Amino acid sequence: MTTVLQHPAYEEERLQRVAEQLPCRELQAGMLLSLMGEPQHYSYPSIFIYGHRASGKSHVMHVLLKELELPHATVSCVECISVTLLFEQVLLSFFGCDAASLLPRSPSLSDFVRVYRQQCSHSPAKETRYIVMEKAELLRDTDANLLPALLRLQELVEDNVTVILLSEIVWDKFRPNTGCFEPLVLNFPDYSKGELQQILSQDRHPSYSAEFYSSYINILLGVFYSVCRDLRELRHLAALNFSKFCEPLAEGKVKETDTHKLWRNIEPHLKRAMQTVYLREVSSLQWEQMQQMEEKETGALRGLSAHTHVELPYYSKFLLIAAYLASYNPARTDKRFFLKHHGKIRKTKFLKKNEKTSNHLLGPKPFALDRLLAIFYSVVDSRIAPTASIFSQISSLVTLQLLTQVSHDDQLDAPKYKCAVSMDFICAISRTVNFDIVKYLYDFL
Amino acid sequence: TPRHATPSIPSRTLPARQPTNVLEEARTRLHVSSVPESLPCREQEFQDIYSFVESKIIDSTGGCMYISGVPGTGKTATVHEVMRCLQHAADMDEIPPFHFIEINGMKMTDPHQAYVQILQKLTGQKATADHAAALLEKRFSNPAPRKETTVLLVDELDLLWTRKQNVMYNLFDWPTRRHARLVVLTIANTMDLPERIMINRVASRLGLTRMSFQPYSFKQLQQIIMSRLNKVKAFEEDALQLVSRKVAALSGDARRCLDICRRATEICEHSGADPSATGLVGMSHVMEALNEMFSSAYITAIKCASVQEQLFLRAVIAEFRRLGLEEATFQQVFVQHQALCRVEGLQPISVSEGLTVCQRLGACRLLLLEPSRLGVLQRVRLNVSQDDVLYALKSE
């Protein structure tokens, strides 16, 4: 707490309350306050605020507008899948539901401006009205005229209105090609480690002392700060793992001040959390249950990504294997891998690979149906007729998204496919049919 | 809420002011909307159209005529004058009475609206496009006693093009009906329009009665202005000749010629402070007006651009030279820009400022840019020739 917010238009007490709710954002809040000026003054037509996720953009705006009781409309551009919803929400929060019902069924921008001006003439703004657009980057995908119009809405509707755009993307990627009114660009910088510590330490558990909780946060940041600076994520992790941290204390093994022992206890636990709960492999609920069940080792539970086993028919497995081989092997090596008598092997020449990058790094390559079937017949030992069921299995592999069709121009005549499964998956499949796939892969020669 | 509001031009409350001096008098006479009684230099074309329409009216048959010519060669004015003369002749009972209607492709929201407008002007009926087409079809194919010849003028024919070309087809097919008594005059800008956009059955029905209006020569332009001014002494002879020569060399557009003359009178009026002026529009005024009209706005824009913008354009050209291509990404140009900044002894600008400069130039169309969401990877092209940019940057 360095400076308390100051502004002549608002009472000291109220500003004090605002400042309490905005730790480590005094500078930005003060800047915004001075931009907004006194309520009856005209503010800048549009302000663009950008910063990383969870850097307090929405929170600061929300607290400022709420505590100072300024008329405002908060619109999330994710929710507004059409401009109709956006216009309705703005009118609703400024003029009540009568105004929103005045809009025609699919309103254009000029309808909105007309209704706004009409309402505005009945109830002119005594204070600056604020429209806060969250996730403003989605405005670029709407009609081309919407963003430029919002930027100079003050001019259009001739009302004391300010549009505030919040986004994670810099302004340079917003600017329309035909130019527009330039908003005032503000940046919210990331929280530093100290600031994160300060904010996270605020929501401490009431039954433990503040120093105890802050030492816990210190350990947590020590583990997670290198991979994650997202305040929301860190707060979530802190809440999840705190009960584990307190366990030795409840058992009476250590005292609150014995930081080193507490650290020894929690550190491997947090490391494991990074691999499981942070990646959402194990849900938070499962994680909490696991903490209660002592005997069951955390992380022993199979996460989401371990559930990649799919039951497939016998020939579908071979089709998938053939597709994988066709995708990751160059076509010129097919003769060597899949033909019995393919002539003399010049061992020295063949074994030496001159490609520098492996095909597994470049990703799968498309192959024709003919090649897939040729490899399929070669890898399956028994004789199989090319029945309708084999071909329908190929197309059902496509619907299962294990294969993808590459070019859509010709469905029947020589379609091309790509194999869309990972190495681990195909190894698991080939183990079930006793097929050694690694022997047939050119990359692993 | 005004749901059915029709846009309209505010009406004039005071009558138009009478011209007080020679220059104002000249300006009203030179206004494009004050079409003179007779059109000079188009006598031959007038005669051709007149005799074509007159013969059709007298024989009570139908036919089509296609009139082409670049803008400002007097196509519409000539046809209107023909119709005025014919109307006059019909009033004097020299020829049988006829009905004249006019449609303009530019004034329609949809090509099929042509049917609606024709029907409304013929009978005053209102109908949907399909219904109107059916009614017109019936009207033109069935015999009726006491039917007058209809003369239909279709301006901006190329806008009536549809994918199946049924509007054009009908317009040219009706005159060939035995009982139609319809004369269709069509106007468009390009000479080879029938060959280019019409399918064979439409082009063949249009027929071979074609007329093309040549651009005016400088003598004709001079004559037009002289006839407009009609003894009002406002211009020096040489000034008029300069205007007409310049315009004739570029386009031969009479409207542009009149515009330049009117602008020159304005310039003359504003510079009337010095006593040495004779009160006539002289060479210098005309030169100034010509420069205003014909000089490229791009060069002026580059000359007035900020230092960083000019530097950026220079960087674009330097990068094009290095690559040997006419296209580069912003990234590549920006490296050149930074180097140029150092050479010029300026503080190198940040990427964000560089993008702002680039997108400002793109917004005034000096550069052609891709959507800004591509960031530093957007490709940059010049919308003006490199020589123009170099010329504008050099003359400082």
From TrEMBL, chain A:
Keywords assigned by UniProt, alphabetized: ATP-binding, DNA replication, Nucleotide-binding, Nucleus
GO molecular function, one term: DNA replication origin binding
Domain Origin recognition complex subunit 5 C-terminal: 312-441
Residues in Orc1-like AAA ATPase domain copies: 21-164
Any Pfam family hit: ORC5_lid
Alphabetical list of InterPro entries matching this protein: AAA_16 (IPR041664), ORC5 (IPR020796), ORC5_C (IPR047088), ORC5_lid (IPR048866), P-loop_NTPase (IPR027417)
GO CC annotation: nuclear origin of replication recognition complex
GO BP annotation list: DNA replication initiation
TM helices/strands, residue ranges: none
Compartment list: Nucleus
All copies of domain ORC5 lid, residue ranges: 213-280
Family: Belongs to the ORC5 family.
Assembly, per entry: Component of ORC, a complex composed of at least 6 subunits: ORC1, ORC2, ORC3, ORC4, ORC5 and ORC6. ORC is regulated in a cell-cycle dependent manner. It is sequentially assembled at the exit from anaphase of mitosis and disassembled as cells enter S phase.
Function summary: Component of the origin recognition complex (ORC) that binds origins of replication. DNA-binding is ATP-dependent. The specific DNA sequences that define origins of replication have not been identified yet. ORC is required to assemble the pre-replication complex necessary to initiate DNA replication.
Entry protein name: Origin recognition complex subunit 5
Originating species: Anabas testudineus
Gene assigned in the entry: ORC5
